[in-house]
Amino acid sequence: MTKTAFLVLKSPQEQDPTHMIRRLSEKADASVILVEDGVYQALMPASADRLSKATDRILVSREDLEARGYAPNELKAGNAAEYADIVDVIMEKTDRTVTV
Amino acid sequence: MMAMDANVAVKIARAALAKGYKVHMFGYGEGVTAVKKGQNPKRFPNVGKELEETLKDNVAIAVCETCFAARGFERGEEITGAKVGSLTNDLFKFVSESDRLVTIAR
User: Considering the domain boundaries, does residue B105 fall inside one?
Assistant: First the structure.
């Protein structure tokens, strides 16, 4: 199946991205990139749990996380990532990028 | 694309450039405001200046002319080096020349 990077910009209050992720990708083929308010998806327990069930790879923009006053050790899912890591996932580790 | 979205687009573009990738950027809808000359935000990054810096790295930046005009902007109000172009010509060319397409939109 096509390896897909899902770019999530919205908070869990605005959107649950896992419906789209599950529809378009198997868990092993999905990478989720959280930027802007999307980082809250990995901070709130319920949304973090949903994401963890939809994908094995969750990258959280460290810059966007820290800009909102949070630290990487507060993440309930995924790992803090630099934009260079995000580009690697988009360009090298997946075949397409879908913005959710 | 809102101002915050434009900032993310610039960050991704810069990271890609640092890794040696060629980057094209196209703005449409509210995204055209990113190339408005003379932006002067007080409390958040100046995306116009950041795009001007990015242009020095040989990045092609174009925006939709229809969207630009719809917001009351005229040719000449864009930052130096950005092109007021079109979806059908510029975006089509960018997409056809690219290995990956990343959309930053809400």
Answer: no
Asked if B12's CB is within 8 angstroms of A86's CB, the reply is: yes
CA of A99: which chain B residue's CA is closest?
A: B103
Q: How many domains does chain B divide into?
A: 1
Residue contact B102–A36, C-beta within 8 A: no
Q: What domain range includes position B13?
A: 3-97
Alpha-carbon gap, residue B96 to B93, rounded angstroms: 5
Q: What pLDDT, in 10s, does the model give residues B42-68?
A: 888 899 999 999 999 989 999 999 999
CATH code of the domain in which B57 resides: 3.40.1260.10
CATH of the domain at A38: 3.40.1260.10
Note the ipTM here. Answer: 0.91
Are the beta carbons of B84 and B78 closer than 8 angstroms?
yes
Residue for token digits 């242009």? B55
Is the overall model pTM greater than 0.80, yes or no?
yes
- Asked if B16 is an interface residue toward chain A (Cβ–Cβ < 8 A), one would say yes
pLDDT for the residue numbered B3: 63
